[in-house]
Amino acid sequence: MGVVGAMISTTVGGKAIAMWMPIMLFFYMGFEHSVVNMFLFPFGMIMGGDFSVMDYMIWNEIPTALGNLVGGLAFTGLTLYTTMSALHLAARSETAPQMATLQLTLGQCSSAGRKVLNQDHCAAQIPDGQQLAVKGAVLALADGISSSVVSQEAAQAAVNGFVQDYYCTADPWSVKQAGERVISALNSWLYAQSRRSQYRYDRDRGYVCTFSALVVKSTTAHLFHVGDARIYRVHRRSLEQLTVDHRAWLGEQSQLTRALGVNERLDIDYQSLALEPGEVFLLATDGVYEFIDPARVAELIGASGGDLQQAAEALVAEALANGSDDNLTVQLLRIDSLPSGQAAELHRQFADLPLPPVLEPGKVIDGLRVIRQLHASARSHVYLVQESGCADGAQGSLD
Predict the structure, then answer these.
(1) Second label for 51, Cα 20 to 30 Å away, from 29, 221, 370, 383?
(2) Whole-angstrom Cα distance, residue 397 to residue 377?
(3) Does residue 32 carry a pLDDT above 60?
């Protein structure tokens, strides 16, 4: 009764009364076990009562102990535990926020088109569980130069090597550090392959390819780019090109200014972007984007009904129908849901926020109205503020 009464009461005084009232009544009525066990029975034996110590143990101590266990544990303890634990779990399930996870949808297609050999290559990996949280998801594509008969090997080695080796990098490394280390190693390997081959003096026939990759980790997209493949962010009626073509034009002729395997040293374009649920990213080689209008690309993706694999195949078919004479490769990625941002990302977002100007009396910031400045230095400012719309007494300081 005392335990139940204390749990029902919502005030400290009420809990004290609820606990002590049954206990005091129990003592007052002479039912307390220590009074019975330590006084009445020994005194009865001294006075010549007709029972022995064994009788005392069998008929009092053992039943009392069992009664306490059964009554206290089963009837009271287990009942309260079952009832309150069920209520506690129900309350937690109602009030605790559901933890969002990173969920992605992928579609990709690569075709030789009108050529005999497909010198493009693409791959993607969306891991499960902890690896997705720690390393993220990876998309990569490469386009081997058409003047080389071994560039398809370079494209396959670059894409497969990046997708595999990225997940083998150290977990404490940032995505930028891990991605650039892997791409630089792949470039060195391709350059060495060309130097050991019969094409070591002709870079247009060596192990050379363009390379573009998208790594999605937590709430951030990380872009790595070398060459003239492109990464877009898809809008409802247009495409936003996120990469720069590394290609120089001389009249109607053009030449790659950057690619994997050309030089021992490689400059890699990198950028990171904050993600929003519902965004769609497109990776494509020149055999696709040069033969489809950007508005038509967005239209085909929208007409797929959310099926990105169907959309990727439709884009390749459309470019081919429009006269594309090159290999064609498309990758599409949709951000279905995002997890809570990690500490580093939150710090970056806060660092990007503009600093407020020097506050004047009467200005309102974050619901606080400035009354006057208390201190100012090159490092900090302290103001006396008041909650906007509150009485004069509700004041505090802001620095």
Answers:
(1) 29
(2) 16
(3) no
- Give percent above pLDDT 90 in the chain: 49
pLDDT (tens digit per residue) in 290-345: 999 999 999 999 899 889 999 999 999 999 999 999 999 999 999 999 987 665 55
- Rounded CA-CA distance 123/140 in Å is 6
Longest Cα–Cα distance of the chain, Å, equals: 127
CA distance 42 to 27: 19
pLDDT, tens digit (0-9, with 9 covering 90-100), for 229-262: 999 999 988 899 999 999 998 877 888 999 999 9
Cα 317 from Cα 297, distance rounded (Å):
12
Question: How far apart (Å, rounded) are the C-alpha atoms in residues 105 and 121?
Answer: 20
Average pLDDT over residues 32-39: 60
Distances 141 to 127, 146, 363, 395 between C-alpha atoms, Å: 18, 16, 52, 59
- How far apart CA 294 and CA 315 sit, in angstroms, is 11
Q: Which residues contact 223 (CB under 8 A, 6 or more apart)?
A: 212, 213, 214, 231, 242, 243, 269, 270, 271, 272, 273
User: What's the CA gap between 304 and 318, in Å, rounded?
Assistant: 13
- CB-based contact 198:215 (threshold 8 Å): no
DSSP per-residue letters across 150-191:
SHHHHHHHHHHHHHHHHTTS-TTS-HHHHHHHHHHHHHHHHH
- pLDDT score for 355: 67
Tell me how far CA of residue 387 lies from CA of 303, 355, 373, in angstroms. 51, 21, 16
Report helix, strand or coil for 140: strand
* pTM (predicted TM-score): 0.65
Stated as kind and residue range, the H or E segment containing 20 is helix 12-28
Specify whether the CB–CB gap between 331 and 229 falls below 8 A. Answer: no
pLDDT category, 96, cuts 50, 70, 90? Answer: very low
